[in-house]
Amino acid sequence: MAKNLTPRAEDYSKWYNELVIKADLAENSGVRGCMVIKPYGYAIWERMQAELDRMFKETGHQNAYFPLFIPKSYFSKEASHVDGFAKECAVVTHYRLKNAEDGSGIVVDPEAKLEEELIVRPTSETIIWDTYRKWIQSYRDLPLLINQWANVVRWEMRTRLFLRTAEFLWQEGHTAHATKDEAVAEAEQMMNVYADFVENFMAIPVVKGTKTESERFAGALETYCIEALMQDGKALQAGTSHFLGQNFAKAFDVKFTSKEGKLDYVWATSWGVSTRLMGALVMTHSDDNGLVLPPNLAPDQLVIVPIYRNEEEFDGVDAIAKNLMKQLRSKGVRVKYDNRDTQKPGWKFNEYELKGVPLRIAIGPKDVEKGTVELARRDTFQKEFISHDKVVNTVESLLGEIQENLYKKAISHRIENTSEVTSYDEFKKVLDTKGGFILAHWDGTSATEEMVKNDTKATIRCIPLDGDTQPGTCIFTGKPSQRKVLFARAY
Amino acid sequence: MAKNLTPRAEDYSKWYNELVIKADLAENSGVRGCMVIKPYGYAIWERMQAELDRMFKETGHQNAYFPLFIPKSYFSKEASHVDGFAKECAVVTHYRLKNAEDGSGIVVDPEAKLEEELIVRPTSETIIWDTYRKWIQSYRDLPLLINQWANVVRWEMRTRLFLRTAEFLWQEGHTAHATKDEAVAEAEQMMNVYADFVENFMAIPVVKGTKTESERFAGALETYCIEALMQDGKALQAGTSHFLGQNFAKAFDVKFTSKEGKLDYVWATSWGVSTRLMGALVMTHSDDNGLVLPPNLAPDQLVIVPIYRNEEEFDGVDAIAKNLMKQLRSKGVRVKYDNRDTQKPGWKFNEYELKGVPLRIAIGPKDVEKGTVELARRDTFQKEFISHDKVVNTVESLLGEIQENLYKKAISHRIENTSEVTSYDEFKKVLDTKGGFILAHWDGTSATEEMVKNDTKATIRCIPLDGDTQPGTCIFTGKPSQRKVLFARAY
Question: What value of ipTM does the predicted structure carry?
């Protein structure tokens, strides 16, 4: 077993940081708060992108691309939006450098000052709605269903790889509709698309819900979200979908003529997931030996490691390996054959364990004799010897089983770590002993939410859409509560 | 025929601008020099991306992602690089806005000034080589073959949609090698990959060659390029691949230990193509009626337009359309069935002509009776009636034929518009009468190149890798010339 990571029980945060770097997912760059996504990490992100993109297109969305820069004045047009984003943004003020007159290097050319500063997009509602004004005149132009894959920048002071970085990659959907009902249905649909993706593709169970007023997106009337629970008992927001009402349409004067010839503002949604999902992936499935990848997301689903002492042995092993690789690839299994002679088998076992490859086949001279291979699972460490003719079927069924097993493990963990409490004392005790999700009654006010947060660092993750809807009394104020809500400390 | 574009013969530049906007490819945004790539244009770009990405992976490259921002000091490390890019870059100087004290809106917060300015990447050599220093220690780490899909910013003063924009999308490959020969071979390989893609996928013939010293990438020892000829006789550089020698390795101190235990700087290449290819696509194939798309790049390869006067007629037409659509899709043909009743058939014909859909099927009540459909080609405007059972085969063979025909037309145009001249008078005469590519002898000096450029606006597009290599005398100075080079006025 690999011994190169700090165990989770010792220091979860350190374990995470080490794993992200050692498994070659990402690393810090020379630019404050900006990460480099390494090839292995990026290959996983590409698999997420491909699947999400497919799901967006299947639900009628098209991709487009809008400018990286947003003129400062655009931000001011939607009041709550500017409050939410102005405090942490990268501002472009000049468009040229020049050689310093004292020969000290290159400096900003003061003569190349922009008339109006440009903000590097932290999110694109304003630039997109400025464009939609030109695209939308009539009900025939609606619904407008657009998605963008892009980089965005939010000047976070404390950053962590994938979880919180100044620059991150994401997709942002921006849609326009003729009616309020359609826009609400779209926002709900996209929350469901995200939940489907995160649960079935990433094997991470989520709770669907709406955000409280104080946790809503800046400019939204309703924020739908999916919340996941990490191994350390902290929550992670895995995706959000916003019903924006007519706020941006009014701010950017986007009106349409209805079938009945009436002029009205259009209704909007926006929704996004980001490279933050990589953090959720790591913190849901991985263990002290390294990354554990659901087969759907694994760039390599299976690795074949040959074991041999001399050329003759290699030839026997190699022939079997190549034959199996061919058979597996023809079934669509992503196979890597690591026949490098610069590294020993033990080193390779360790490496692929660290990188979370779901299945490993080792073939040695004895296997050649017996007509078997050793097949090992990354998730359970189970090993078995199987005959060559059973490899393809076994691998195919195991990949499905691993995908399912990871989801089951994660949902068991969530069930074990979801508590219902009836008093504030109990609430604080659960928070400090086991953490996790806590369902509790809340009086519906931002004031109470704020006081609980200041006291315990726990926030309301969401008002769940499903589950117990019995009224009760707020654990903090004793006032009436409509239903229990979901609290947790969160990333 | 569509009459909504300025004819090319009247004003080629106006025709281009109108076409890009009316065919829904892109438009100008509210941000100076930055475009919005509209869904239809982006769908074509996605097809280019998918094919290039496949070709890069097939040649052993992996994708990764590096920061958008580059600290100012990184630029200064490679002297010719900073000269090439410092004069046109977006500079981030602050990281926060705040409410103005006089209530006049939001302003840059002077207290949030960065210690070191950040440049929005115009290209990523510096930030990537700063990272490679950590990734490369030994010959085992080489070759390092990485590509990045990204947005970059160059503060151009005169911009045109796709051809020259402040922000554009591209891919940039950055590779590191143990030997000079390997790096040169990689740079040449990627030029060949680009040529293969542009010729076979985009149906645009190119001339492969190397740039003269004055036209090289800032920091390169050799720039390989592919040059295409547009319909108006101007050249367009469609892709470049650079052999960077050890310049960036030395600037960022990237050394490796060889098999023999020797420490040496690594050898580098970089290579890229951008959304500029969209401009090349438009200006190579399109006509006065609109866009003409090679079937490989067309988001919709065939559109079906139903023609009917009442519901009964529609039912008959609709059944055939749906049946054909199903058959064609099962063969992998990208089919759009436009059954909207908000637009008339004539409007639709015009629309899909403007958008360059390669094939159109119209089905009316008479076709239902006769068991035929009308099939029309976008490239030649040929129409024929064919029976239902022949549709699939005919469409499949026509798509191949159109792809081929577009390439043939383009190469004929290039042959007709490539001249060889032996005197400077002849050179100027050809330039002013027909333009196009001009092969002529040149004495090999930057001084001569510069004088010709100042006098005629023609530049040396490349020193071709193939073709006539006979020595001669320079048309401008009469000095000895090693071989003819390729001149043209260029985009």
Answer: 0.96
